[in-house]
Give the backbone structure.
Amino acid sequence: MKHVDEYRGADAARALAREIHRTATRPWTIMEICGGQTHAIVRHGLEDMLPSTLRLVHGPGCPVCVTPLETIDRAVAIAQQPTVIFTSFGDMLRVPGSTDDLLAVKSRGGDVRMVYSPLDAVAIARQNPDRQVVFFAVGFETTAPPNAMAAKEAKRLGLRNFSLLCSQVLVPPAMEVILSAPDTLVQGFLAAGHVCTVMGTSEYFPLAKRYRVPIVVTGFEPVDILQGILMTVRQLEEGRAEVENQYARAVRPEGNAHAKALLAEVFEVCDKAWRGIGVIPHSGYRLSEAYADFDAEKRFDVHTVTADESPLCIAGAVLQGWKKPADCTAFGTQCTPEHPLGAPMVSSEGSCAAYYRYRFRA
């Protein structure tokens, strides 16, 4: 635990907080992109350690939260088919669609299985040649390489009964949408460290230059986050707009060359819908032509399924930093983890779930 504990030390955290207080002379608004960072901030009370003039807002960095409602409905439609074994990570099973979630399908006899790796789904397909096995491929650049590996392995094995329901999204285009909005509140970013372990840092330089905004690649422990905030505040106070790497113990500027090559082989960049935000150009992955046979949307003809969001849910405003979870009139009453209206209350990385767990019930 040594290398974890040193990034959770109370003395180091307090020292960083004192330095942030000394450094911040003006009001600033900083957005952390990653849902894991959001939970660490709320769980450890980091906002309470900061100057009152420094505001943290929570970005669209929870993959479950930004998966469109229509994609959940498509998953439900596929999972209900009697020939299908539908596989997914556990946090997707309770995300509400228009009328159902995947657990409801399972309760009615649908073969819905939680797996711990997309390669588990490939193994299930090998074991069940008479069934169609679908894996719900959700996430950012971090989860894309293992999902790509599953498709590549299925192709190598010649599996005709395996496919991916793909909802892979990319972080930098979402950051650009937030920055280009005329009413944006964001003046600096804490970028998601795990995304950058795969992709590196080069994608962030054009954003920092074009929008004159500091971007600091940051880890996930309290000391990481406070140091990332300090680095961002220093840039803001000094009028700089640079890409800096707080998470140098894990992130290299070039990223992971092997993972990036795999992504280029299996996927291609496309426009993608984000829950609560809408379609963002060039913000997602779809299977490339060489792997098009593994596209579950085409195989099961569900690409025309559409859905409308609940008018009570303000997930889009929360994900873009305009609102905080407690600003929602349904928060903690009509929307709870047991009866969620939107994905941010369901996901283990959702900002609404974090506020409910660590603040609302305190």
